[in-house]
Amino acid sequence: MGRPPGEPGRVAYLYLLPAFVLYAAFLLYPIGRAVQISLYDWDGLTLGRWAGLDNYTAILSDERLRAGFGHALVLIVFYAVIPLAIGLTLAAILNHAKVRGLGFFRTVVFLPQVVAMVVVAVAWRRVYAPDGTLNALLGALGLDGLTRGWLGDHTFALPAVGVVGTWFESGLVTVLLLAGMSRVPMELYEAARLDGAGAVREFFAVTLPSVRGEIAVALTLTVIAALRTFDLVYVTTRGGPGDSTSVPSFEVYHRAFGLGQVGSAAAIGVTLTVVIFAISFAINRLADKGTT
Amino acid sequence: MISRAERVANYVILSAFAAFALFPIVTILGAALGPDDAGPAGQAWGPHLGNFAAAWEAGRFGTYLRTSLTVSVFVVVVSVVLSIMSGYAFGTMRFRGQAVLFYLFMLGIMMPSEAIAVPLYFDLRTLGLIDTFWSVALPQVALSVAFGTFWMRAYFRASSRAIAEAARIDGASTWRTLWQVLVPPARPAIVTLTVLVFMWTWNEFLIPLIMVTSESLRTAPLGLAFFQGQYTSGFTLLAAGSVIVATPVVVFYLFLQRHFVRGLLQGAVRE
């Protein structure tokens, strides 16, 4: 392509250089190394042994690893699907009705996004503790039969971790959808009303199709967050009891620094990266397809 | 036109959700301000601000906050300056390999830090850089620069191409054009980037967990996690410590809420 005289060309590389050097050294090179390490059986100390794709096939055959990816799928329901349902409901209400205190409500529901996950985890540990606030609440409601140590329970630990995800993602999804809904022209709603559509019909005919793009963004953000759950599991359960809350990110850490299976840890990390890229690509493709 | 019943139902749903959102926050604030559950019985009613001083002392949060502050300031300054420069190149100039280089930077936005932290640990160990300030700060600069480049490129592309061209015709150098012509009006976009990078760095847990062994280099969230492991005789001081760790970002959020919301929502939207 032709360049007008005086337009900067090569100087662009100088502006890119400092950012690129750091980025290449601390991100591109390590991901290349991760791929390399994942092909070895390596304890991090002695010489590694070539393993080919064994570390990858183990993700399918090793029960604990397979369970970890299964748990990540369960977390996607809690981090993405339920918050989407909650967010659509709340945003539709907030957009529709002139509610007092909207600013305050938005500040409150968005707050979990900015609090360090370690703090979130400490707070929820307290909520779920045997003598914690959830059991106190249940006791006050006369439901003593339901009380338990939620995070130490084989059945309830994973949903309990999931609810924390629902808690901090719902506000993000609500605010995101609300921004989208406020851009829907009023005439569309008036036209629907004139056609005799009720609130529910109106929601499915007008609101939902208009926020398709925002839904895609919300799902991308929340699904990635679900797949990357680490801090929360590290602080609340460390994958326990048994392996009932083990998730891929925690397995990466646990294998590399707990069990000395660095090759396996790298393979899980690479797989996780590929899964994240594939899912966000698929979600955005689906959203684009719907709009054209 | 909204019926009374619908209005009541709306408020019930919104209040129920607000209660759900506030429940853990109230739990921790209540514990932090309440009487020390590991202390003597029969303490006075009212907020116990002494808990914060006790937690500060017992949890050594002074050291952790200082480390967090140093790391955050370094990561914010370096990655924002580098992102402005690279975003300027991508947003206002044309050069060979532009598309490929841009996609390379985009990889980093979604890259889970879990994937790179493990190889980085072993390579930095070989170089003897483990357990240093650099091992905590530089990987986070790399992660932030990916997003920052994307963010500043979008800004410069949308609003600065014509201005950059006019400045060039006037004979201004590219360097002066950037810092004296383009950056001043870009302040809102730069503030948004700054608060996001600050929040991400302050709250980061995995990278310091892996890279740091000495106590003097622990960041605030890491210090809190260790404090939780060691301090088991009650919850009051742990709650107070949590409030100490969360407060800096929350204060920023309360004052610059618009920037946080805009950044977190638009950051993910492809153009």
Defining traits:
heterodimer; A: 292 residues; MetI-like fold; two-stranded antiparallel ribbon; 13 helices; 71% helix; B: 271 residues; Carbohydrate ABC transporter permease (chain B); transmembrane helix (chain B); cell membrane (chain B); MetI-like (chain B); transmembrane (chain B)
Helix content of chain B: over 70%
Task: Report the sheet with the most strands of chain A, covering strand number, pairing sense and barrel closure.
Answer: 2 strands, antiparallel
Helix content, binned percent of chain A: over 70%
CATH fold assignment of chain A: MetI-like fold
Largest sheet: spatial strand order of chain A: 1-2
Helix and strand element order of chain B: HHHHHHHHHHHHH
Q: Beta-strand percentage of chain B?
A: under 5%
**What oligomeric state is this?**
heterodimer
Question: How large a portion of the residues of chain A is in β-strands, by DSSP E?
Answer: under 5%
**CATH C-level category of the domain at 62-219 and 247-266 in chain B:** Mainly Alpha
Strand count of chain A: 2
Question: pLDDT average of chain B, as an integer?
Answer: 89
State the fourth-level CATH superfamily of the domain at 62-219 and 247-266 in chain B: MetI-like
Number of helices of chain B: 13
CATH architecture of chain A: Orthogonal Bundle
Given as residue ranges, the uncertain stretches of chain B (5+ residues, pLDDT < 50) are none
Summarize the structure.
Chain B: The chain crosses the membrane at residues 12-33, 69-88, 100-121, 133-152, 189-211, 231-256. The complex is a heterodimer of chains A (292) and B (271). Chain A has 292 residues and is mainly alpha-helical.
Could you describe the 3D structure shown?
The complex is a heterodimer of chains A (292) and B (271). Helices cover 71% and strands 1% of the residues of chain A. Chain A is mainly alpha-helical. Chain A has 13 helices and two strands. Chain A has a two-stranded antiparallel sheet. Chain A has one domain: MetI-like fold (Orthogonal Bundle), CATH 1.10.3720.10. Chain B is an all-alpha fold and 271 residues long. Chain B has a domain at 62-219 and 247-266: MetI-like fold (Orthogonal Bundle), CATH 1.10.3720. Chain B contains 13 helices and no strands. Chain B has helices at 4-33, 50-59, 61-92, 98-110, 113-126, 133-159, 161-169, 174-182, 187-203, 206-211, 220-230, 236-255, 257-266. In chain B, helix 1 (4-33) packs across helix 12. The mean pLDDT of chain B is 89. The chains are: A mainly alpha (292), B mainly alpha (271). At the A-B interface, helix 1, helix 3, helix 4, helix 5 and helix 7 of A face helix 1, helix 3, helix 4, helix 5 and helix 6 of B.
